């Protein structure tokens, strides 16, 4: 697991620490890694990296070096973005640009809450416009019952197959590996 940039970090990156703890359960090669290895760029201000960096340049060489260190220890690296595809990192570089930077396939995870249809369609359109490989799934963690009433009817009519993060992880992983 890897999260290139995390904002809102006071002492330790909360997301990075959770990711590290989870990967350590499955991969003993990560026992000596720290949250700083998982999240090489950290800022205190909880905002888009472009704002949080307060005029500094993002060190993309440091990001790439950290990524390579992690990639040596595993078969697949899950790279977590932050806030959505169009969150700015630099003036003309966004989260979506990290996909090409890492030559990655995107796992687009849609939340199960009001507004998810719009967010999903905008994200899919952005990925298609840039000709980026992606797999789409729904995270049923939020508002599962409401999702069935307010969003699922459209998704069923729009998409041939709906993958769910909680029950289709094996299939999602197989598709990610196949597209690699």
Describe the protein in words.
By secondary structure, the chain is α/β, with parallel strands linked by helices. The protein has helices spanning 14-26, 35-38, 49-52, 60-71, 95-101, 116-129, 144-150, 152-158, 169-179, and strands at 5-7, 41-43, 88-90, 93-94, 106-111, 134-139. The chain is built from nine helices and six strands, in the order E-H-H-E-H-H-E-E-H-E-H-E-H-H-H. The strands form three sheets. Strands 1-2 form a two-stranded parallel ribbon. Strand 3 and strand 4 form a beta hairpin. The chain starts with a strand and ends with a helix. The model has no long low-confidence stretch (mean pLDDT 93).
Describe what is shown at a glance.
The protein is of the alpha/beta class and 180 residues long.
